Amino acid sequence: MLASMANPEHLERLKTADWNGWRQTHPGTTPDLTDTKLEGLDLSGRNLAGADLSRTKIEGCKLDGASLVRATVHGMMVKATTFDRADLSECDFEYQKLEEMSFVGAVLRKVSFKSASIKGSNFTACDMTGAKLEGAIVGAATFTFGRLLYANFRGVDLDGSTFEGCDLQQAIFDGVTFRRGNVDKANLTLAFFRDAKLAGTTFRGVKAQRASFRGSDLTSADFTKADLSESDFERAVFTGANFTETNMRKFTAHRADARAATFLHASFDET
After folding, report:
1. What does the alpha-carbon distance between residue 176 and residue 204 come to, in Å, rounded to a whole number?
2. pTM of the full predicted structure?
């Protein structure tokens, strides 16, 4: 079912297999899909790049493999819809509710999820380079094997989420709450975890050269076989943490609390 107040020609074409061809022959036309209800439609592979979807309600649709690059999505409401392998680069989803959605393999470069709710959503193997998530409600979202270089999670509650195998180079996690989380085998080179609450989180096998954990709570964290060379743990609390077989060359921990931490076979020498 599809009802709306948008451009009727654009809506009718959207439902046809000719949509992408029409977009190619009308490159200067911005699809007007505003104030629309799109329900139960298979829009997989549709070219919606630059389209205006303001205040549109999307429910029970498939947008797998679709392109929504730089689409206008202000006030858009989405429910029970999949975006697997879709390209949503540079879209602004601030303050929107995108809970329990599937974005597996999607491209979300420079997307803004500021103050949005993405609880329980699946971002497995996504490219979220440069994504902005400050103030987002993330609870139990999955980012496994994702590419999140330069992503900003400053101050976010990440409890229940997983970042196993992610590329998090230069990502910002300052002030986050991520207790008993999983960051195993991730690349944290030059990442920032300053003043974060990371008690019980596992960082097994991570590459965290020159990363900063300054002032963080890492009580009982597990860094087994991690590379922490040149990383900064100044003022960090890592009581009971596990650094077994960890590379800690040029590691700094001024005024840190390392009581009951384990350093079995850890490397501290510079050569």
Report:
1. 19
2. 0.94
